[in-house]
Amino acid sequence: MTDKNALIQPDRNQSAVPIHLVDKDGLDAFVKTLTAAQRSAVQAQKFTADGYSHAILPDGDGWFVAAGVANSASLSSWCMAKLAEVLPAGTYRRVGGEPGPALLGWVTGQYRFDRYRADSDAEGPRVLLTKEVKQIDAALAEAAATALVRDLVNTPAEDMGPAQLEHEAQLVAKAHGAEFKVTSGDALERGFPMIHAVGRAAARSHAPRLIEAQWGDAAHPRVAIVGKGVCFDSGGLDIKPGSSMLLMKKDMGGAAHALALAGLVMQHKLKVRLHLLIPAVENAISGNAFRPGDVLRSRKGLSVEIGNTDAEGRLVLGDALARAGEDNPELVIDFATLTGAARVALGPDLPALFARDDETASQMVACGKAADDPCWPLPLYDGYKDYLKSDIADLGNAGGNGFAGATVAAMFLDRFVPEGTDWAHFDTFAWRPAAKPGRPKGGDALGLRAAWGLLKARYG
Predict the structure, then answer these.
(1) DSSP state of 423
(2) 213 and 87 fall within a common domain
(3) Same structural domain for residues 25 and 99?
(4) Is 458 a catalytic residue?
(5) b/e map of 379-398 (b: 16 or more CB within 10 Å)?
(6) What average pLDDT does the segment 140-145 reach?
(7) Number of structural domains the chain divides into
(8) Does residue 137 lie within any of the structural domains?
(9) N or C: which end of the chain has fewer CB within 10 A?
(10) Among residues 24, 240, 356, 385, which one is catalytic?
């Protein structure tokens, strides 16, 4: 995509095309300020101030833009994003106010994933000016974090396997001077046996690994961020049908979210001792693949009977969460593309949020709403613990029925987080099946800015 830093600039009264944001309540008053030729242009373009609509109006030798918004007094992150996608390349300025939160959508609306294209179809850049200079860095940082998630998720598994995911994590860690450690291959068998079991069938070039980075003052509160990094999920021996495998390059979307969030924490120097953990594997099929009916050891010491090899994400997260808990974190946040049940319940736009502490859940929801990154709480219901019972092991990895799949998966993870630890779990889709302004089809960050808002509020 175009250099994000070129897309928002401080307003120093340079030449720019004016943008008038108009809502339906203000349309009549706006039209009265126009010349006869401009009113004719409004009518010809059938501009009625609907959200995301716009009209280009003549102004002497130049022109300006009238853009429809839901509420011109309370802008959203996305209300100007469509303009950033469709207006001609150039420099623009909002008339009568500042873009505020719309700065984010202006940048994310110009995102393009063109790694594999000979010719990019992007036009631009479209530059937006603002006098609120202090908001520029914050908007660009969040847009860059969003772009990182999108890039990682959009990249096919052959080019974004465990080794490549390790490389991306190392780049972020090195940029901020974080300690970096990787446990890989057969070295996982003793300390992280579930990560090893899930990933051992992959080719050597895609060998499993646990990626860790630590950053910050040890005297500050410890915060762990964990992300599911299943770089491709065939389903294992319980193989998925072909149609269900088409999007499985995105099964490392949780890792992409965790890495992007950790980057924001370090970039803004929050007063935390950060611990990033990414179990990176490919759930493949070969002669040494783990099997239905196997009983796996775990780092926590619990034994797990495998009822379904396609419920592998909770296994690798279990070992990573157990490792995170050994350092007594004050807060643990994990992201995972974990269950289809969450999508059935909430659709693609809403990540399911599970939290032990009601205050944490409420704060996360509020932060998501404020950032136009909504999430929706689902219950950690003890009554469903029986769904994870095993006849021969401490617990099973898959419920024996189709009920409450997202909650049952979250209850499995709950067993690997120390009692009393504040823990929030996002079951996110990490994908947008249809484009919306500022949010193109493909990989996307869903829940990232909600979690970032909570961390800023607590530790900023």
Answers:
(1) E
(2) no
(3) yes
(4) no
(5) ebeeebeebbebeebbbbbb
(6) 98
(7) 2
(8) no
(9) C
(10) 240
| pLDDT band for position 359 (cuts 50, 70, 90) | very high
Helix (H) or strand (E) holding 26: none
Question: Three-state DSSP class for 295?
Answer: strand
Active site includes 314? yes
- Residue 120: HSE in the Cβ half-sphere, 13 Å Cα cutoff: 12
Task: For the full predicted model, state whether its pTM sits above 0.70.
Answer: yes
List pLDDT tens digits, range 55-86. 999 999 999 999 999 999 999 999 999 999 99
Candidates 4, 93, 299, 314; catalytic one: 314
**H/E element, 36:** helix 36-44
Euclidean distance between CA atoms 272 and 293, whole angstroms: 42
**Residue of 110, 149, 151, 114 lying closest to 127 (CA atoms):** 110
pLDDT of amino acid 211: 99
Question: What is the DSSP code string of 160-218?
Answer: SSHHHHHHHHHHHHHHTT-EEEEEEGGGHHHH-HHHHHHHTTS-GGG--EEEEEEES-T
User: In the numeric block, which tokens belong to residue 171?
Assistant: 């780049």
Contact 104, 147 (CB under 8 A): no
Domain, as residue range, for 223: 142-459
Residue 251 β-bridge partners: none
Residue type at 259? Answer: L
Interstrand relation of 431-432 and 442-443 (parallel, antiparallel or unpaired)? antiparallel
Residue with tokens 């780092």: 299
